[in-house]
Structure formats: C-alpha cells, structure tokens
Design goal:
Layout: E1 9-14, H1 19-34, E2 38-45, H2 52-58, H3 65-80, E3 88-95, H4 98-108, E4 113-118, H5 129-135, E5 139-144, E6 153-157, H6 162-178, E7 181-188, H7 201-221, E8 230-236, H8 242-253, E9 257-261, H9 275-283, E10 289-292, H10 299-305
Parallel strand pairs: 1-2, 1-4, 2-3, 4-5, 6-7, 6-9, 7-8, 9-10
Antiparallel strand pairs: 5-10
Helix pairs in contact: 4-5, 8-9
C-alpha cells in the first residue's frame, strides 16, 4: 500500500522571479498535508563569481553572490511559507545549468518529491520540465501560475496498471489527510480497424466501454476501499492523444490536482516517463500535475548516469 509516508524529502526549485511566490505557498500546503520531514529550497544560477573588474573595484563591500541569493530566497520563504512542526528547512544556491543541477541535487539528497513551477506568462529560467521528469526517480508536482492552495478535488487518471494503483493509493491518503473529493477517470478508445468488424463507430465504442467497465471492477477489487469515498468516470478518447482528454476532464470537473502514475522502466535505454505523462506535461498549464513514481525502481540507471 502506497501512502504519503513515501514522501519525506522535498526539493523546491526557485528562480528568484515572481513565480516563486506561487511555488513557495504551494510548498507550504504540500509540506503540511504530506507531513514532509525535510525541504530543500534550491536556486541555480549561471555563476557565483563576480566579474573581475567588479571584484577589484567593489569586492570589499559587495557580499558574495551566494549569500545575496540566499537572502533573496529567505525573503520569499519567510513571507509565504509556514514551516510545519518537525520539518527541517534548508536553502542552497548552486552554479551551473539549471536542469542538470536540479537532477544532481535531487540524487545526492535522495529527494522523494520535487516541486517545480510551470510558467505560461511569467519570464522563465531555463528549467526543462520534460528533461527533469524523464531524468529523475523522484515524484514531481508541477505548480502553475495563479494556482489555488487547497486540495478540494483531485483527479486520478487510471489505466488499470500497477502505476495507476500506486497513484490511486496516494490519492486515498491525500483524501484522508486533506478531506479532498477523490475522482478517478479512465480514458478508453475505439481501436483502429474497428470497421472490419462490421460495426459502426458508436457500436464499437459501446463495446469498448463495457470492456473497460469490466477492467474497472477488477482494478478496484484489488484495492482496500474501506471508508474511501470516490467517483469513477469514463471518457471516450476522441482527441488526438489521451492526455488531451485527461486534461479536459480535469478542467471540466474543476479539479485542484491531476495525479498520474508515471511508468518507469529499469532499462538504461528507457526514460522514466510514459508518453501520456509527457504529453500531459506539455498540455496542462493551469492545473497542478502530480507525477507519481515508484522511486527506487530506476535507481540503477540513475546511479550509472551520475557516475559519468
């Protein structure tokens, strides 16, 4: 049984832009609900060195770059973050490429959960969400601009796989801790070539719906649903990609978070995010997206990666 206790160490990426306010406030909510033990606020800059001419002229009066950036982080954190009891808070500044440094730091600190901002209008910092999602064993919550800081409704997209079971169990624990309404949805599709059966599209869509309902019954029978309140729905995939339908369903239901079990693989030749998760990451800009990973299932690949 997967629950929120699997998330003990959280990395929160900041870029010292207006986006940080949304990310830090969201981190405050998540830290409380998830009962996080340690939080690492991280900022990555291109360089910690002052230009030589500035160093020569003002070096004795200007504070080191890392100290200055830490103070800027402190201002945002002190104003927008409520520290949970028994939670350790750390602030770190590193120099290098944003995406690479985040991945390395998460590996070194054995981070279970990342919080990353998703910008649409605000200026960016060079963070590559797709690369991070592919390159880490950590689960990730992507926080959009102007998001809410409550979990009243959460939607779990399920395909009846073990990764969906993991995501649903996490959703159950979120409901227990926050009181959120738990919604689940399965996107089904009519297979290519259905016309060879002699049936119309509508007829075959009904056949596929009945089939997915049978799978649904088997899926939920495997779970411990005592005292769990949830609503399950189905959506016919009439869009170019299932991710489009998942996002539209979440938007129509007015959910505060979409949870998706990310399909990890142990092979070093395979990345750690499924095609649906990757597409949803590109499409979903205004609903927080929670990609849940098993964590250690890909650790051998990551160990090899960071030894390069």
């Amino acid at each position: 049984m997967h629950d929120l206790s699997k998330f003990q160490r959280m990395l929160v990426a900041l870029d010292l832009s207006d986006m940080d306010i949304f990310v830090v406030k969201y981190a405050s909510m998540i830290a409380k609900i998830f009962e996080i033990d340690a939080i690492y606020f991280l900022n990555v800059t291109t360089s910690l060195e002052l230009p030589e001419e500035i160093q020569e002229k003002y070096g004795n009066v200007i504070a080191p770059v890392d100290e200055t950036l830490i103070k800027e982080m402190e201002l945002v954190i002190n104003e927008n973050f409520v520290k949970p009891e028994n939670c350790d808070v750390h602030m770190t500044v590193l120099a290098g490429t944003v995406t690479d440094e985040i991945l390395k730091f998460a590996k070194v600190k054995v981070v279970d959960l990342m919080l990353l901002g998703r910008k649409e209008k605000l200026s960016g910092s060079g963070l590559n969400s797709r690369k991070i999602a592919k390159g880490t064993a950590s689960s990730i919550i992507f926080v959009p601009e102007d998001t809410t800081y409550e979990l009243n409704k959460v939607l779990i997209s399920i395909d009846y796989s073990e990764h969906s079971q993991m995501a649903f169990e996490i959703g159950i624990d979120i409901q227990k801790k926050s009181g959120a309404q738990l919604l689940s949805n399965n996107v089904y599709r009519v297979p290519v070539g259905y016309a060879k059966s002699g049936k119309s599209y509508e007829e075959f869509s009904n056949i596929m719906l009945e089939n997915t309902k049978e799978q649904c019954d088997k899926f939920f029978k495997k779970l411990n649903l005592d005292n769990v309140s949830y609503e399950h729905t189905y959506a016919l995939d009439d869009d170019p990609h299932p991710a489009d339908k998942i996002y539209k369903t979440g938007a129509e239901l007015g959910v505060d978070m979409i949870i998706l079990g990310s399909k990890g693989r142990s092979s070093g030749a395979a990345f750690l995010i499924g095609s649906v998760a990757e597409k949803l990451l590109m499409e979903d800009r205004d609903i927080p997206l929670f990609l849940v990973k098993k964590g250690k299932e890909n650790m051998s690949f990551l160990e090899a990666l960071f030894k390069l």
